[in-house]
């Protein structure tokens, strides 16, 4: 039976407009006056808040996150910077249901992200396509104020995983995976891995090894979906996973409409930051 876990985040800045405004102004000034990272265009207050909320308004940690995120974009443009061709392909991948976002939030206001391995066609899509889609989804979620505050939970359903899927994950990508988990402004509160076959054990150990202590502590392995529903409210899932309210198709296209409505903002965001490599970076 699903049991609600206690909500622990209680950031007093959210309730004090004076403190919040002071933090926003300080961080905005930091972005605009950064000696190595040039910001093109106006600063978006919601984007500023995303960095602040991700580190519970601890300004030095928020600044570090900002610098790491900008550096990751520079080092991984093939994943982070989209053009029309990449955008079209990852929307096609999204339509397969390989990675979806549930229509309803859980009782703590968290978005539920589901990765269904069996729906991923390895003959058509690559690891970069997967990373682009995951990056796109987290980017869109970062535009949602409730998601900034409450975070997400991530379910990786490995039922149907085969050797062709494992070949997509060269070990050299593990460092990037770990880095990505640490630079996302969207808080992933819990990570569930379900139905892991024996052929994936070594890869899982490698992934777990490269995660930092915080993300490692959030990771739980479930033998089957029945065990998962002790921790995740099944009623919030699509009907394919036992939910009652929304079909898989309704769930899929609800979030797709959100992606499409944010297309311009997504394209602009990754091009706003220019790092001067002749200096510190």
Automatic annotation (TrEMBL):
<dbReference type="InterPro" id="IPR036865">
    <property type="entry name" value="CRAL-TRIO_dom_sf"/>
</dbReference>
<dbReference type="Pfam" id="PF00650">
    <property type="entry name" value="CRAL_TRIO"/>
</dbReference>
<dbReference type="GO" id="GO:0016020">
    <property type="term" value="C:membrane"/>
</dbReference>
<dbReference type="InterPro" id="IPR001251">
    <property type="entry name" value="CRAL-TRIO_dom"/>
</dbReference>
<feature type="domain" description="CRAL-TRIO">
    <location>
        <begin position="87"/>
        <end position="249"/>
    </location>
</feature>
<protein>
    <recommendedName>
        <fullName>CRAL-TRIO domain-containing protein</fullName>
    </recommendedName>
</protein>
<dbReference type="InterPro" id="IPR036273">
    <property type="entry name" value="CRAL/TRIO_N_dom_sf"/>
</dbReference>
<dbReference type="GO" id="GO:1902936">
    <property type="term" value="F:phosphatidylinositol bisphosphate binding"/>
</dbReference>
